[in-house]
Amino acid sequence: MKQIIECVPNFSEGRNMEIIGQITDQIKSVEGVKLLDVDPGAATNRTVVTIAGEPEQVIEAAFQAVRKAMELIDMSKHSGAHPRFGATDVCPLVPISNITMEETVKYAHRLAERIGKELGIPVYCYEEAALQPERRNLAYCRSGEYEGLSKKLSEAGWKPDFGPAEFLPRTGAIAVGARDFLVAYNVNLNSTSTRRANAVAFDIREKGRPMREGNPVTGKIMKDENGKQIDIPGTLKACKAIGWFIEEYGIAQVSINLTNISITPVHVAFEEACKKAAERGMRVTGSELVGLAPLKVFTDAGKYFLKKQQRSVGVSQDELIKIAVKSLGLDDLKPFNPAEKIIEFVLEEKTGHLLMDKTCRAFADETASESPAPGGGSISAYMGVLGISLGTMVANLSSHKPGWDERWEEFSQWAEKGQALKDELLFLVDEDTNAFNKIMNAFGLPKGNDLEKAARAEAIEEATRYAIEIPLRVMRKSFEAMEIIEAMAETGNPNSVSDAGVGALAARSAVMGAYLNVKINASGLSDKSYVEKVLAEGAELEKQACIAEERILKTVNAKIK
To answer: pTM for the whole thing?
Structure first.
């Protein structure tokens, strides 16, 4: 599964689109990175650029963009409404999928170090990437802005985290950080009143509303002994909100920025807005996502609403997205297209060559053709897919069985585990063919002089090792599936026990078939200690799979006699 991060560099140029174009051209030149958005502002004289992709490529694209901005933007002549202290003012990295914040911070530090060393720009690390506690706050790092930077850099306490403590009049400094994903999200009300929408916004936002003497609306705002306004906090953390009227739709909305969706997810904000609107006599009719959001926003929401209905969450990704869209009312104002709004989907390469994108008939025809791939490895993985799919089906049927209402969560948990295994095995169907192609490509390398021969031999060895690891993963995951299948044979809906039996046959066949691929690929590897290790693991998995199959079939046959 690919790791995906987002990067949102802000450049101190929002009026000269030729300069912005040259900077974004640097991003486009890096393969594997997608330019998602370019948002220039004339008043702020600032452009916010959004890119995403795998981490290595993203930080390379960010570095090249920072380099080009250093060449083209002269901060000594810059003015604008937004706080700033550098040509590339800020450059945050955001974890999107299959990557932790801790890993993202490491990439931020790598990028910051390279900018400091190779470009000689003073770099301050902020938010999750901060190396000093007080520098977590971006406003603190940027205090004094560009105009105060020369003096600040001369002070020991303001030594940059990376790069020299040297004032560059043309370039200034840069803040490199790591933060959670920010979701811009609007909740639709059956009202045209901005004031009432604002009231809901104040109810939910972290800052809340000012405390007033006497009348909570018109009373005098209360202040503490230092003259600072006293606020009554709202109900949601990491949430900013305001109410407004949208002429285009003729409705009032609660406009929300969720600054940390691991603290307050979208579905939690939606539910709280519904609750507070209802308390004020209004109804939420739906919501609107501004820009893009990670897949997790939708799968988490789908699971949340299914659990509220006491239904199994072990359904497909597409079903979870559909439930999320309908439950949040994301199609209230206009059609909602997940392919255009979910970051991972926007980044997908639609090659049209994936086996799993074919019909069952087309997959069979492709396998039966004269091409050597797909072959036994992909078929073994697909047998594993079918095996765990049957086990997951039994779990979902059991979750909804009349009279078993109190057991829905038990079976939902099994089904959720089954879906995760199914998705990984689906990936391995195509990856086995990719592994075969890697070997073919390695054998096709030139073998003229000694250096070429050595490089070719190393490439063949590496590709062969990968072609062993893939079917070995198929074995592990298919055997793991048998635990779910056995549980369904023993405790699941008795009307579907034969389906569990067929699932066991398919999963065992997947293990045995994948082991044949491990063995045939291992025969060409020179690392004998590695070969011995993987063959031993494979033999044990095959043995245990056969034992599990026999045990499951015994249970199944006892129940259908």
So the answer is: 0.82
In the three-class reduction of DSSP (H, G, I as helix; E, B as strand; rest coil), residue 241 is classed as: strand
Q: Work out the burial of residue 375: count CB atoms within 10 Å of its CB; fewer than 13 is exposed, 13-18 middle, 19 or more buried.
A: middle
The residue ranges of DSSP E strands in 22-63, in sequence order, are 33-41, 46-53
The candidate with the shortest Cα–Cα distance to 3, out of 235, 294, 382, is 294
Computed on alpha carbons and rounded to an integer, the radius of gyration of the chain in Å comes to 28
Quick: pLDDT tens for 253-264.
999 999 899 899
**Mean pLDDT over each residue of the chain, to the nearest integer:** 93
Question: What's the confidence (pLDDT) of residue 350?
Answer: 60
> Residue 17 belongs to what H/E stretch?
helix 17-28
Spatial neighbors of 511 by CB under 8 A, at least 6 apart, are 384, 474, 475, 478, 479, 541, 542, 545
Looking at residue 406, the DSSP 8-state letter turns out to be G
The rounded distance, in Å, linking the Cα atoms of 116 and 121 is 5
| 82 is known as an active-site residue | yes
For residue 363, the surrounding DSSP H or E stretch is: helix 360-368
CATH architecture classification, 183-347: 2-Layer Sandwich (3.30)
**Is 423 tagged catalytic?**
no
Answer CATH for 355-560 from 3.30.70.100, 1.10.10.410, 1.20.120.680, 1.20.120.140: 1.20.120.680
Low-confidence winner among 152-166, 196-210, 337-351, 488-502 (lowest mean pLDDT) = 337-351
Q: 374: cis peptide before it, omega within 30°?
A: yes
Please compute the mean of the pLDDT values over residues 386-400 and round it to a whole number.
96
pLDDT digits over 501-527, tens only? 999 999 999 999 999 999 999 988 888
Number of C-beta neighbours around residue 118 at 10 A: 12
- CA 507 from centroid of its chain's CA atoms: 30
Is residue 112 left, alpha or beta, with left meaning phi > 0 and alpha meaning psi from -120 to 50? alpha
Mean pLDDT of 321-347: 93
Domain 4-178, architecture per CATH: 2-Layer Sandwich (3.30)
Instruction: Given the residues 267, 432, 450, 499, select the one marked as catalytic.
Output: 432
Exactly one of 82, 231, 331, 430 is catalytic; which is it? Answer: 82
All structural domains of the chain with their residue ranges? 4-178, 183-347, 355-560
